[in-house]
Amino acid sequence: MKEKLISTRKSSVDVPQVLNVFFPGKCNLQCRYCFVHKEAENFKDVDEQAIKREIEIFLDYPGKKKVLSFNGGEPLLEWQLIKRIYAYAQKQAQKRGLFLEGVVVTNGTLLKQVHVDFFSKNKISVRLSIDGDKKTHDEARPFKAKNGKSSFEAIMKNLDQLTPQTLEFSVSLVFGPATVSELLNNLKFLQQKGFKYIDFYPEIYATWSKEEIKKFEKVAAEIGKYYVSLFHNKDEQKKLFRISMLDMILNGTNVGKQEVCGKIQVDTLGNFFVCDKVFSLPKKRRAAYSIGNVETGVADKKRQALLSVLRKEFLVETKLGCEGCNLRKYCFCPVGQYLYRKNLKMESPLFWKSFCAVSSILIKMNLDIVKKLQYSDSFIDLNRF
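Given the sequence above, the corresponding structure tokens read:
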């Protein structure tokens, strides 16, 4: 007997509200810390009807607001397909009386006016992967073709030629031990470029030394002080930018609470997976973390069971004592990192200690900002959903 397509629960914090569609086959960059396993150049396993069915199954979960996110590889290499799929998803959402939000995560090197026009018309958010200034960005995000061209210059040239209309780009910046000293300068650089939504995340697979962790602690304090100062000077308020973690803390939602996972990941062949880090594995090895397909539906019980097993393994193997941590509800879910390292046999106590330390510094910085600005009308207005 087949398991029910979806859970019959009317509401739950663990009901998936986000569908991440991964196009892992192709990308024109070779980012140093990208976790996605790239398939061969002739990888053509894309089934449009299967993707549409994945979306239908996802939309049938409880909840009135849904997010459909396109991830790579580089999604804009599948531009015509994305347009068709999103138009179909919107029709299906309207039939169900749902609000659907679209997100495209792109490296920006292929971005053209035709893309912006479509995104603006359909109210699709665009998240650009930019690590800061040219030196910082190009060191981590070179072109795959090794043609000597700058991916930073390609992005900036594209942005300069665009008429954004109603579209506001958000930026995702990745920093690591080698670039943390320049983090504040890189944030200011992106701020000066006019980005109003800037998120910055630590390189998730880096192992930080004690000295590097102390350096990040100092830099985080400087960033917190700088960010708070923007709200105390009217002349500086035009430079304000949003940060996702601040939004979520202020609005009472959890960033990456380890007990829940409100997302489902899918490939382009009709398969559902328990975690995005499954795409760090070759296609054949992903099967162990499958939670269904478009023929059988999502095995919700298997999804919960797999997450539970991975969380328990993580707690036992890492010995971090997460159960008693008061920052746990804000912590980026470590299950994906555990799955990735487990499958690549990269177990390391030093990594997990540094992961915990770096995550804690980032969370405490954001909590401190909220504490200092909780009575600021400008801050509340900026971060209100």
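The chain is about 40% helix and 15% strand. Try to locate this feature in the token string yourself.
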